[in-house]
Design goal:
The protein is built from five helices and nine strands. It is of the alpha+beta class.
């Protein structure tokens, strides 16, 4: 298995999304983890929520399609989508090559900021993955 990256500055969901908080903690950036993109294989299409959409933590808000499968994108937090990464329309492979930088998916204005605190930290997420693979 390749060495995967788990930036300590991020929070993680059990559905393999990451959340990056901004300075004011009211808006977060969301993407899928290095583990998720590796499991998916080559990403060929990303269906993201639209700006203005309300998303609910734990519910599907889009899809990631790879050469292997189609997976739901599960919202790690609740709120309103304020921006989407339009670059993924033409270059969905950014999710594979740069899941934490260029391959981010969307920004969310949080309706319940405390949800971020309930997400896993880097160490907890790595332990979660190891327990899933065992």
């Amino acid at each position: 298995m390749a060495d995967l990256d788990y930036p300590v500055s991020l929070r993680y969901s059990r559905d393999h999304e990451w959340v990056e908080t901004t300075e004011d903690n009211a808006v977060v950036r969301v993407g899928i983890t290095d583990f998720a993109q590796e499991q998916l294989g080559d990403v060929v299409y990303v269906d993201l929520p639209a700006v203005g959409d309300s998303i609910t933590a734990g519910e599907s808000c889009g899809e990631v399609e790879s050469t292997k499968s189609v997976s739901d994108l599960i919202a790690p937090v609740s709120g309103t989508v304020t921006e989407v990464n339009d670059e993924l329309d033409g270059t969905p492979e950014l999710v594979n090559s740069s899941p934490f930088e260029s391959g981010w998916m969307f920004l969310v204005q949080l309706s319940e900021p405390e949800q971020v605190d309930a997400l896993l930290d880097s160490e907890q997420y790595q332990e979660f993955i190891e327990s899933e693979e065992a």
